[in-house]
Structures are given as structure tokens and as C-alpha cells.
Amino acid sequence: MARMMVATYLMFIAYLHSSLSDDGHEMEEFLKREYSLTKPYQAIGVSGSSHWELMGDAMVTTDQVRLTPDMQSKQGAVWSRMPCHLKDWELQVHFKIHGQGKKNLNGDGLAVWYTKERMQKGPVFGNKDFFTGLGVFVDTYPNEEKHIEAQKKRYTPRTQRIFPYVLAMVGNGSITYDHERDGRPTEIGGCNAMVRNLKHDTFLFIRYVRRRLTVMIDIDGQHEWRDCLDIPGVRLPMGYYFGASAITGDLSDNHDLISLKLYQLTVLRSKQEEEDEEEVTIPSVDNMELHRNYYEGEGMSGIAIFFTVLFSMLGLFLLIVVGLVVYSHWNESRRKRFY
Ligand SMILES: *[C@@H]1O[C@H](CO)[C@@H](O)[C@H](O)[C@H]1NC(C)=O
Ligand SMILES: [Ca+2]
């Protein structure tokens, strides 16, 4: 038992330093300081003297980059000045969302970006709509469920989302983020994350390896990563910008960024794999339909369920009959052998 615990502990430590990709290839991580934002935040925003640039209502203090204060109608962002040309990477986001608002009377959330565009104000958590690239959102206000009460009744437990909700979206420049529906039509995956007003540190972890997008969260103060989403076939071009943004409306929160740490992952690829990975120019997700979290067409209709059950039972009945026939034949021939 003790040995097992030690082994588990060692595995955990190993995981922190070099983690295994899903097919067991070992990866090494290197912190890339030029794409990271950590304390002390030296002269952010002063032109040319930093790798990062502030925008809107964002403010730097000694302890955090405050994207928005806990006040109505604010929006702010911080953007890397340099495009990132890494193929495989991992972004660890240390953030804090807190405010006076009671549960569900706060908003609207923050976003972490890897996009072609940078420094453009807009309605998507303070960033432009019709963006090109990846957005991971921590949405703290359930617009859809608040404003479309009637539709709520149509949710099955599987498709109802509990807020705050973390979700990922990939834009190609002509896809809109549906704010009133909390991005449901374009969601590729997500999870609930109770991140507000916590005493302990909260982290978001975004990994992009071999076109696989993995988001994990560490929000329980246990130093454990919890799976949020894991999607293969996500095609993101190189040379985009990392950024983070937040917005408040009638409801507000402090949206604080404590650090962004970007790790380069070195993944061994075979020659064949290298060749197979043609250059991506437009972001996209393979088999997008599979990832949609829709309630339209979600679940089976009564008739579909009826026929599914009917045919399953017919199938089972047939199997039993065939089984019995085979068994009796076998029994017969065995008896014949004995006499
Ligand atoms: C962007 O994605 C949408 C929806 O998948 C598609 O209809 C559109 O053609 C794409 N645009 C580009 C420029 O690829
Ligand atoms: Ca929302």
C-alpha cells in the first residue's frame, strides 16, 4: 500500500516535469519566458519595453494584471506582442475571479486566446467577434438560462450546463460567438468550474499537442488537474498571438490574471508524421458535429426510442433462439457419441 502511494507520488512528480502524451511518447517542457507573463510585471504597457501590451480598462498592480475591476461595463485585455511559432505547447493560466455579486449576479467572465488578431475590442469577453483561432472562456454568467427560461425546460440533464462554465471555441474569421446562448452553437467542449470567490489559487491549463486540444482545471486547491475537455483534430496555425481578456456588463467581477506560463513541448514525431502534418492556414476542428452540445436533435424522440427498444428485444430474442438451437444440436451429437 505504502509502496503504491510512493509510486503514485513519484508519478505525480514525474508528471509535473515531463508528461506523457496519450500514446506514451515522452515530452519535455521548456518554459518560454518571452511568451509568459509573470511577476514582477515589468513595465507592461509601456511601449516597446515589454513582451506584453495592455488594453482598455486593464491595469497592472504588484500582485496581478486586473483585466477588469468589479465595476459595470468594463473591458480589458493583455496581449503578447510576439506571434508564437511553436508547434506543440502548453499554457498554464493562474487567474482569480472575485467580486461582491452573489451567485449568478456577477459577470461576465474571462477568456484566454491564441488568435491571429490581437488588441481588438469587442463583445466576446472583451475581444473581437469573428476571431481567427482558439478561445477558451471562463463564462461566469448564464445568459441563455436567464433570458430564455422557456427553453430551459427542454434541456436534458446531459445538455444543461452549470455555471461558471469553461468552454473552448475555434473560430475561422467567419464564425460568430453567440453571447445570448453562451456560445453553445460553437462549443467544442466544456465543463463546469466553480471558480468565484475562492481562497485558494485557481488554474486553467491548455495543452495543444499533435492537434489535440486538452483543457484541464485546478480549482479545488488540491493541486490536481481535472479534465475539462480533450478534443483531437483541432487544427491551429502557427504564428498566432496569446492573450487574455475580460468583460463586465450590468453585472461585474474582478477578473485577475496572476500569471500566464507558456511551455514549449518537444514531441518526437516520425518522418511519416512530419510529412502527414501539412501546414494549417485556417483554424478548424475535424468532425465538428460530434462535439456540439446542442439540445436541438439531442436525445431520441419517443418513436426512435420505441423502435430502438423493439429491435434490441427482437435481436436478443433471435440470439437466444439461435443459442438454444445450437446448444440442443451439440447436446444431441454428444449423446450420440456416448451411446
Ligand atoms: C468557417 O467555418 C464555417 C462553419 O464550419 C464554414 O461554413 C466556413 O466556410 C469557414 N470559413 C472559412 C474561411 O474556412
Ligand atoms: Ca455568459
TrEMBL record:
Alphabetically list the UniProt keywords.
Answer: Disulfide bond, Glycoprotein, Golgi apparatus, Lectin, Membrane, Metal-binding, Signal, Transmembrane, Transmembrane helix
Record's bilayer topology term: Single-pass type I membrane protein; Single-pass membrane protein
Its GO biological process annotations read: endoplasmic reticulum to Golgi vesicle-mediated transport
In terms of superkingdom, the source organism counts as Eukaryota
Q: Where in the cell is it found?
A: Endomembrane system; Golgi apparatus membrane
Query: Does the keyword Oxidoreductase belong to this entry?
Result: no
Residue ranges crossing the lipid bilayer per the database entry? 303-327
Q: Which GO terms describe its cellular component?
A: COPII-coated ER to Golgi transport vesicle; endoplasmic reticulum membrane; endoplasmic reticulum-Golgi intermediate compartment; Golgi membrane
Pfam families registered for this protein in UniProt = Lectin_leg-like (PF03388)
Q: Which GO terms describe its molecular function?
A: D-mannose binding; metal ion binding
Please give the PANTHER family that the UniProt record associates with this protein. Answer: VESICULAR MANNOSE-BINDING LECTIN, VIP36-LIKE PROTEIN
Protein name stated in the entry? L-type lectin-like domain-containing protein
Q: Which species expresses this protein natively?
A: Pygocentrus nattereri
Lineage, broadest ranks: Eukaryota, Metazoa, Chordata, Craniata, Vertebrata
